[in-house]
Amino acid sequence: MALPRITSPHAKGANRTQQVMLQVLLACVPGVLALTWLFGAGTLINLLWASACALGFEAAILALRGRPLGFFLKDYSALVTAVLLALALPPYSPWWLTLIATGFAIVFGKQLYGGLGQNPFNPAMLGYVVVLISFPSEMTSWPAPQRVGPVDGLLHVFGIAALPDGWTQATALDVLKINQSLTVDELWAQHPAFGRFGGAAVEAVNLAFLAGGLYLLHKRLFTWHAPVGMLAALALMSLLFWNGSGSDSHGSPLFHLLSGATMLGAFFIVTDPVSGATSNLGRLIFGAGVGILVYVIRAWGGYPDGVAFAVLLMNLAAPTIDYYTRPRTYGHRKPTRGFKMGE
Fold first, then answer.
1. Would you say 58 and 67 are in contact if contact means Cβ atoms under 8 Å apart?
2. Confidence at residue 303, expressed as pLDDT on a 0 to 100 scale
3. For residue 20, is it within any domain?
4. How open is the CA angle 301-299-296, to the nearest 5 degrees?
5. Among candidate residues 110, 136, 169, the one where a domain is terminated
6. Which is the most buried residue in 4, 85, 94, 212, by most CB within 10 A?
7. How many Cβ atoms from other residues are within 10 Å of residue 234's Cβ?
């Protein structure tokens, strides 16, 4: 019987990367809508400016490297990086803050290592951490839900005027972190940063990103291992160290799951196939490590939210995780992790 001679690559469609990136952008729509409804047009301004900056930096570096612009820009990877970064930044971020974050993400987080598929760190999280460390004041003040008008927001973006007093507030994670005397119940009753279960308005945003993530999971763009590992580890850590409603409490599992960038990180960041682990067991360990580090940073670290730092730290550990979780090769009894001299 003659067998068909089919050569690689065995790809479906003209551009698999482009299709995947478009699906990711589509999955971000619920989160964008939630952020826009709750915080005004600031998120849309972030998205438009970050996208323009990302495409500009990408085109400039590609031109310097002598690579074809159209081919690489059409894979939409730079656009996905810009969107994820813009969604993580506070709405109405100053224009220069978004420019620095996006430029660092594209140039130093992606192109410096050779482009898509060769970056050891998640580019969006690398750009986010740079501006978080450099400009903590601008990065930790979010507008109060449904308080900032478009005119005042634009004036703030371009540095013409600051937002009026009372229109910005600390996040629930930040309030809980610096609390020393009030119980959790008192914080919930007195501070506007707290919502029903998590941060005010941010809990709805997290549910929106959860919906987008489940859509990607349904489309089988990634497996369940990394997001489930992260969310389960974060919930378990917060449950183990939960001190009820005392003044030294670090928050309940539900609070941590619905605050900060938890769902954005679980479904859109730790599932990055380039900077994360590759085997199913490795993805589970990678996600669990991110979840543990997120809680450690939130509870005892110097920053209220720790998703970006946790992801970058686990990016460093991804090669080691891959080495020790390599699946068994067909025909071998156990995983092959290299050969000794003479074998």
1. no
2. 86
3. yes
4. 70
5. 169
6. 85
7. 28
